[in-house]
Amino acid sequence: MDMTTAPGEDARPILSLRNINMTFGGVRALKNVSFEVMPGEVHCLAGENGSGKSTLIKVITGVYRPAAGAEIVFDGAAVSSMTPGIAQSLGIQVIWQDLALFPEMTVAENIAFQTLSGARPRFVRYPAIRKIAEDALARLGVTLDVDRPLKDFAIAQRQIVAIARALVGEARIVFMDEPTASLTQSETDHLLAIVHTLSASGVAVVFVSHRLAEVLEISSRLTVLRDGALVGVYPVEGMTQSRITELMTGRTFDQSVRAHDISRNPVVLSVQGLSRPGEFRDISFELRRGETLGITGLLGSGRTELALTLFGMRQPAAGTITLEGKAVRFASNRQAIAAGVAYLSEDRLALGLNQPQSIADNLVMASLNRILSGRLISPTKKRALVSRWIADLGVKIGQQEDAISTLSGGNQQRVAIAKWLATDPKVLILDSPTVGVDVGARAGIFEIVARLAEAGLAIILISDEVPEVYFNADRVLHMEKGRMAGWHDPRATTLKDIEAAVYA
Amino acid sequence: MNALATRFNAIFGADMAGPFAALAAVLIVFGLASPQFFTAATFGSVAFQLPELGILTLAMLLPILTGGLNLAITFTANMAGLTLAWVLQANGGADAGPGAFLLGSLLALGVGAASGLVMGLVIAFTRAHPILVSLSMMIFLRGLGEFLTRGGDISGFPGFIAPIGHGSLLGIPVPLLILIACVLACHVLLSRSKLGFSTYMIGSNIESARYSGINTRKVLVLVYMLSGAIAAVAGIIMLARFNSVRIGHGESYLLITVLACFLGGINPFGGFGRVLPVFVALVVLQLLSSGLNLLGANQHLATAVWGILLIVVMVLRWASAKFIKLTK
């Protein structure tokens, strides 16, 4: 292997894909996509959530099998059918956002994991494992105590462990899925330095991300996907952040700030000094009628934990919650729902909706008492309630009895919102409502949010995408490590300023 | 043909097609094979044998729908039967009055529900696996029953109890009437009540049900209590039919009830399935066994045929799912 090849005209790509098509249950996730990586280059694969980035990686690593006609060429040799095993033996490594490490095992065991696995029973030789781990870390210019369990380390260090593991697997291309999503600025800088080292040693690195500022600094080329199709491949030189956003979303940035003055509206929810050890501390705010309060912050900022506490699924250790002037203490979310608090979960697949069950059953799940006649559920009332909300929120469905999993992400989310609106809430907490929703359908979700706020509903909008809260909320609360880090008024600040504060 | 299928599905539901097809097949095959099959005697024997298995199957069905299982149903049934038997004995044995029977029956239902309550509480609060929890309850009840009865029978009950096991009302066997009442009650419970709705939701995703404000623990406890109480009904019928109670009665029914649920289209992992197809599936199983009996086949062979039937059903289901996918 030529370790010094620099990306150039005459170099042969280490990996090249052509005619990649992928369909899931009628939805075309990838449409005729092609993709190319040169040896040793730092490449950026950009696209919004749902644009097909993850699907493409799963095709490359053999997790998904693309439709007939696909061509995958690795280092000049065609790969007729990729499997995870082949991908690994070729040196294609992926570092997923969740890192896929073993928290209870030591750093050494995590790094040397692949040399440990195998069908034949063998004794584990710990000195050898430590050596492998220390060598891999040394290549990255990092020292860690390899005998300590991984759970002792912060997320940034765990990421380094994941990279070291990829190196042990003789990596030639490393994909990094949203590698900077949960890192601070200095941790990100450190990561970028490591990427530099990797690239210099001939390993190609592909960043998969929708937040590009820092990544752009060291990438040479950029591939943009939108709605499962290739938008184009561009040299990074001369690219601007706004041009990339334009390429990713397919529209010029004409979004305007929706924030308006709500300070004269009556207070619906008031939170004073709310704390839960290890999750969040001393949170105080007021939420007014018709207000959309945005809460943003990185992973681990305590946003979701705070929401679950307001929703009664966790109990605060200190502080008070006042709903419409009355102090409340919810023992369960049933009490919260009855009092008028609704919570749309960030995890629509596992918690927000009951995927195998029907659209109708999902929609009425939280408001069964409204469709009873006597002690029994009235099929007529149920049908009427479902029809009303389906029409009201513009959900596109076939039959009410179809499983909700047959709907697109955007339509599923509309049903999930309808489920909570049917409970007649006073406060609606939306936790990352656009996760897994197609780019085109997101605007529709936020139009619903705006309409609900206009009708007087008090809304808490949680998102780790700063632009979402910037454009759609009246005020933005920035949380960091469980504390309130600052308030921002979208009418008085720029998106850049808030992003700088959040990703600092 | 297609229009016919659509009409059928509209009236009975798509999940009835399989059980009805099996019913038709059994009737045709045995009708041709044995001239005595279509006689009152055949259907009489089916009508008297079906209820115990049928009611026990209902007791199994409810926990399965929540994604669980109740392996203690037969021993719960007999423990309830023993409760009734002791109350009768304490009140004069064969001379006991209807009051003693009523009291004993209520206590029997209470014992059944209590067995379910304990399992339900453990499952709901510790999240222990229902197989292990109900298996422990099953072993506990068997051991307790054998200890209390020293492994023997209790018999000698007043004559007025016999009709519950052997009598007929307007030409319909009383146990069959009790079964039909239980089937209808379970049908309404599952299709129309909040508890039934929650049972399905918990079965396919308990966490999403909890996030939607369903009291998942309460539902689990109630479902296991109901399961235990229904098993107790089966216990009372067995007492009346055999005129005796033994802790090991009907032990072989246990796994058959699981299979009957499966044959009736209940999702073995919970969340989906209805009572009526299960009822038809039970009739098929019983007709099959009675029909083979009529042909002079060995009783054990009949059991073997049940096993074959279930394997065939699994393969056919796979094949029809494949066919539907292809034609779409």
From TrEMBL, chain A:
GO terms, molecular function: ATP binding
Domain ABC transporter: 15-252, 257-504
SUPFAM superfamilies with a match to the protein in the record: P-loop containing nucleoside triphosphate hydrolases
Keywords of this entry: ATP-binding, Cell membrane, Membrane, Nucleotide-binding, Repeat, Sugar transport, Translocase, Transport
InterPro entries in the cross-refs: AAA+_ATPase, ABC_carbohydrate_import_ATPase, ABC_transporter-like_ATP-bd, ABC_transporter-like_CS, P-loop_NTPase
PANTHER family listed in its UniProt record: CARBOHYDRATE TRANSPORT ATP-BINDING PROTEIN MG119-RELATED, XYLOSE IMPORT ATP-BINDING PROTEIN XYLG
Membership in a protein family: Belongs to the ABC transporter superfamily.
Protein name as it appears in the record: Sugar ABC transporter ATP-binding protein
Organism: Shinella lacus
Organism ancestry: Bacteria, Pseudomonadati, Pseudomonadota, Alphaproteobacteria, Hyphomicrobiales
TrEMBL record, chain B:
Parts of the chain that traverse the membrane: 20-43, 55-88, 100-124, 131-149, 169-190, 219-240, 252-269, 276-295, 301-319
Name of protein: ABC transporter permease
InterPro entries in UniProt: ABC_transp_permease
Membrane topology: Multi-pass membrane protein
Cellular compartment(s): Cell membrane
PANTHER family: ABC TRANSPORTER PERMEASE PROTEIN YPHD-RELATED, ABC TRANSPORTER PERMEASE PROTEIN YPHD-RELATED-RELATED
Keyword Secreted: no
Short name of one Pfam family: BPD_transp_2
Keyword tags: Cell inner membrane, Cell membrane, Membrane, Transmembrane, Transmembrane helix, Transport
CDD domains from the UniProt entry: TM_PBP1_transp_AraH_like (cd06579)
